[in-house]
Automatic annotation (TrEMBL):
Keyword entries, A-Z: Membrane, Protein transport, Transport
Protein name in the entry: Clathrin/coatomer adaptor adaptin-like N-terminal domain-containing protein
Biological process terms in GO annotation: intracellular protein transport; vesicle-mediated transport
Main location: membrane
Subcellular location: Endomembrane system
Top-rank taxon: Eukaryota
Clathrin/coatomer adaptor adaptin-like N-terminal domain segment(s): 21-132
Pfam families: Adaptin_N (PF01602)
Length: 133
């Protein structure tokens, strides 16, 4: 089983050298890729949160873009929030995966939950392109 985000942060901060840090990130990145391949949905939000941490450290995390899209379609707010955060950080306006987000954004904009609608509005403000209209 993969480690929790808190454990990953501790492990990275305990690294004495950059090579040691790269090894920790590479190992966890491989575990996340395996979890994505095996469709482990109960760990999806945790894995995206770890990918966001790795992205902030400057490591490549492009393989998690589709996982963010899947989380935005989740009915659970905490998972949806992580998905939108991942979408904002990991995707650019040129990303092809962004076209998949259009339906999730439309449904979340008309949501009765004002927090869900707020997530969608924030995402549109940062990522909207002319093609999305």
């Amino acid at each position: 089983m993969a480690m929790k985000l808190r454990d990953l942060i501790r492990k990275v901060r305990q690294c004495k050298t950059a090579a040691e840090e790269r090894a920790v990130i590479a190992k966890e990145s491989a575990m996340i890729r395996t979890a994505i391949r095996e469709e482990q949905v109960h760990f999806r939000h945790r894995n995206v949160a770890k990918l966001l941490f790795m992205h902030m450290l400057g490591y490549p995390t492009h393989f998690g873009q589709l996982e963010c899209m899947k989380l935005t379609a989740s009915p659970h707010f905490p998972e949806k929030r992580i998905g939108y955060l991942g979408m904002l950080l990991l995707l650019s306006e040129e990303a092809e995966v962004l076209m998949l987000a259009t339906n999730a954004l439309k449904s979340d904009l008309v949501s009765d939950n004002k927090f869900v609608a707020g997530l969608a509005l924030c995402a549109i403000g940062n990522l909207a392109t002319a093609d999305m209209s």
